[in-house]
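Case study 2.
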Amino acid sequence: MMGKHGLVTWSDDPRQCYDNTIRIIQEAEDYVAEQQRGKRVFGELKVPALGAKEREDVLAAVLPTIRGAVSARKHAVLITDDRPKRPP
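Prediction:
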């Protein structure tokens, strides 16, 4: 479950509605983390990850086009982050 993707909460107060949404998303995240402990959630790796140099080459090739598309109406700066995920 991701915020803004099909989750709807209600309240008479906007702040309470927001807090409800965040709470439910956190509960879902906690549930998924608990259920996946020690399990492969998405199955086996089908395509190996690119190495650092290959990732840089692909990004250098496609990012100018993406930046142009997303900056057509408003200037944008694209940032990529391929650092390893921090442990929970």
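The chain has two domains: 1-44, 47-88.
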